[in-house]
Amino acid sequence: RARVYAVETQNRDRVVLLARIEAPMITGVQLDERGGLVLATAPDGGLLRLGPELRSKGEYVSIEQDLRRTARIGRTWFDAELPSGSRLEVQLRSGNTAKADATWSAWSKPVDAGLSGGDVALPPARYAQFRAVLRAAKTGQSPLLRSMHASVRRGNRRPEVRSVFPLKPGVYLRPLPSEQEREKTVTINGNALTELKTRSPVERDRKRARAGVEPGLRTVAWTTRDANGDRLLFSARLVDGQGTSIGLGENLETPYVTFDGRAVADGRYRAEITATDRPSNPPDEALQAAGRSEVFTIDNTPPVVERFSARTTGKGLQVMAKARDETSTLAWAEMSLDGGPWLLIPAADGLIDSAEERLELTVNDIGDLAGGKSPRVVKLRVEDALGNRVTAEAKLPQ
Q1: Chain segment 55-85, per-residue pLDDT in tens
Q2: Per-residue pLDDT tens for 323-349?
Q3: What pTM does this model have?
Q4: Distance from chain centroid for Cα 59
Q5: Which of 31, 252, 318, 378 is most buried, taking the most CB atoms under 10 A from its CB?
Q6: Which stretches within 165-318 are classed as H helix?
């Protein structure tokens, strides 16, 4: 529908809607001899005349407003100029079709309380529409509607726990206080002042944390989504293969929890997270959702080295050992002769990739390693996939 606006010559930021007509286009505007406006419309080729005489009553009907999901409207209020003797009433109606039809509710009782507002009795629905009826005073002065507002409570939707995952062993997260908006330098001009004139939307506190590494600590983190933008609280727990549950935290406000993995028995676990939107909803409307991680391993015990032996073979050296870990796979092994450089020891099958391995290394000439001296001590170092390390020592016969 075409619209006719008036722009104040002294304040070009102020625009007033004069009329809205059924035709989709206005193709010409002409001032007539009585000070009115004659409008040519298309595509029907019509002519309309506006004023300058004022009607005693005017009506404005908004387009259908999509509330995105079923919602309840509680109170409506408006900002307007009301000369003495003039009157302004606002009504609303609701429905579940994108265009208002016979299935929509009737118009609500008129609200004329201005900024103080008034309650509106409407059935919950996805769409809403408002109508403003303006009545001029007997002196001819008309009310001016600047804005209309309504409080809306959308139906609660269940939060989502999208992913749950452990961080690398040893990584911890410690929450920090929320950071306030910092002072900044601005160039004073019209655009900057206009931007500062309007109220900025309030941003939710962005969670901040300090990250570090400390052996033995473990951190589980998760990502969530809430269609309502509700504030969420979380509970976290570990569950082992037998279904035994270990609580990690309740009413957590951060999307992570750090705990001491050394206080938990070695084994394979899943992390289970429950999210609730209780802080943003009445108790009987709060919803919750759960998610869990893939299985991961907690292992605080170093590998075990057995049957470690070392012997010289002429100018060479032969090292043999068996290493095993009860919980994790082995990651690597290396040896050092008399405090010299560490040398990688391969598994007998060529790859260190299981929880138990036979380790074998033969060095044909240890002259550079021993520094020309008679070798005395061989040290062996083995580490599992989670960073637990063991060191063993074998003395060479002299």
Answers
A1: 888 888 999 999 988 899 988 988 888 899 8
A2: 999 999 999 999 998 888 898 999 988
A3: 0.66
A4: 42
A5: 378
A6: 190-197
Q: For 99-125, what is the mean pLDDT?
A: 89
Single-letter code of the amino acid located at 392: A
Q: What does each C-alpha distance from 109 to 121, 280, 333 come to in angstroms? A: 8, 30, 82
Q: Which phi and psi angles does 195 have, rounded to 5°?
A: -65, -40
Q: Which two tokens stand for residue 159?
A: 């939060």
Distance CA 47, CA 41 (A): 6
Rg of the chain (C-alpha set): 38
Residue with tokens 């802080």: 279
Position 274 scores a pLDDT of 98
Count of alpha carbons within 13 Å of 376, Cβ hemisphere only? 4
Q: Which of these, 29, 35, 100, 24, lies nearest to 62 by C-alpha position?
A: 100
What's the token pair of residue 124?
Answer: 């919950």
364, 366, 372, 373: CA torsion to nearest 10: -120
How far apart CA 360 and CA 95 sit, in angstroms, is 79
Cα-Cα-Cα-Cα torsion 173, 174, 180, 184, nearest 10 degrees, comes to: -60
Helix then strand then coil, % of the chain, to nearest 5: 5, 50, 45
Band the pLDDT of 312: cuts 50, 70, 90: confident
- Better-predicted residue by pLDDT, 6 or 291: 291
- 279 backbone dihedrals φ, ψ, rounded to 5°: -65, -20
Position of tokens 């032969």?
318
Tell me the three-class secondary structure of 163-178, residue by residue: EEEECCCCEEEEEECC
How many Å separate Cα 83 from the centre of its chain?
48
Can you read off the two tokens belonging to residue 75? Answer: 């109170």
Mean pLDDT for all residues in the chain: 89
Provide the CA 358 distance to its chain's centre, in angstroms: 49
Name the E strands within 171-276.
171-176, 208-213, 217-225, 233-240, 245-252, 256-260, 267-276
